[in-house]
Amino acid sequence: MLLTIGAAPNDIVTSNGYTIQNCGIFASHVQKALSNLHNVLQPAIWDTHYGVASAPYQAFFKSSFYETFVGHALSSISIGSAVRLDDTEELVTPNLVCALKPGIVMVYEAGQVFDIYDLCKTNPTWVVLYYPGTSTIFICPYFFLMPTVPAAGNCPVVNETTNQFEGDLNAFWKSQVYMLLHEIVHFYLGATVEMSANEIVDWNYAYSLPARDATLNAFNYVLYVACIDKECTNYPQADRPQSPQGRRLGSVLDLLNTSSTGIQGSQGSGVSPFHTDAMNTTLSQQNSTFRR
Ligand SMILES: [Zn+2]
């Protein structure tokens, strides 16, 4: 992947290990989002030391065996630690690139060219995009219209009969801080594991994952951090099975690795190289060219 940013080469600011590029007057907003992220991560990092004695840790990571892994990932995210993306010697840190105007932020991949702004505009539900295998996370204009942090409250409740989470998942997490966290988790997990082809953004799905899968699912980290930040107290009972039909409640199919005619073939399989997280439960008309 070759990235070019056509204007304002000096439009670069930093925040801990993070680089924020091409964001203009919005650079301070991204810095603030990273600052909010740092703040919500601190109690979660502390909580990992309790392992399964912590109710949210038990709910989203299941085994104390992984508490060091989870704690390390969250610590890395809070300061933007450098990591190796592959077997090369090069250490990289996340690079947040704003695409606020057409024709500026261009990606060249396998003979194709993508204008990131166009991708944002064509898919208004895309807010933050991660290009797997790289250190680049793109920020769409819509990001700046989102709440900086989610509204207070909106913790899930647990249905006694189904032993499932219920509630308004979007109200619970949709915000700059958690959209950013989700994609940054992909960057840090991507340094070590393959990304799954179909990611399901749903709290009952996240809860249902066995420990190892949970630690490799980006949304589990989002839910864990948000539940601690919001001091949520209701979790399914670990010693009771969940009823399967409840799993569809609040379910959102992530637009992970969706494809369009415009970017088909970029990986030879019709799969888009971009990862993002849908804002809505339904695909808009404009998304009809994208494969779910
Ligand atoms: Zn994701």
Query: What is the count of DSSP helices, taking H or I runs of 4+ residues?
Result: 9
Q: What class, by secondary structure content?
A: alpha+beta
What name goes with the CATH superfamily?
Answer: Collagenase (Catalytic Domain)
Total individual domains:
1
Largest sheet: 6 strands, mixed
Strand order of the largest sheet: 2-3-6-10-9-15
Organism: Imshaugia aleurites
GO molecular function: metallopeptidase activity
Protein name: Lysine-specific metallo-endopeptidase domain-containing protein
InterPro entries: MetalloPept_cat_dom_sf
What key attributes describe this structure?
292 residues; alpha+beta; Collagenase (Catalytic Domain); six-stranded mixed beta sheet; three-stranded antiparallel beta sheet; 9 helices; 32% helix; globular; disordered C terminus; binds zinc ion; Lysine-specific metallo-endopeptidase domain-containing protein; MetalloPept_cat_dom_sf; metallopeptidase activity
Topology:
Elements: E1 2-5, E2 12-15, E3 18-21, H1 27-48, H2 55-61, H3 67-79, E4 83-84, E5 91-92, E6 95-98, E7 105-109, E8 112-115, H4 116-122, E9 128-130, E10 136-139, E11 157-159, E12 164-166, H5 169-173, H6 176-190, E13 200-201, H7 203-208, H8 211-215, H9 218-229, E14 252-253, E15 275-276
Parallel strand pairs: 3-6, 6-10
Antiparallel strand pairs: 1-7, 2-3, 4-5, 7-8, 9-10, 9-15, 11-12, 13-14
The chain binds zinc ion (ZN).
Zinc ion binds next to helix 6.
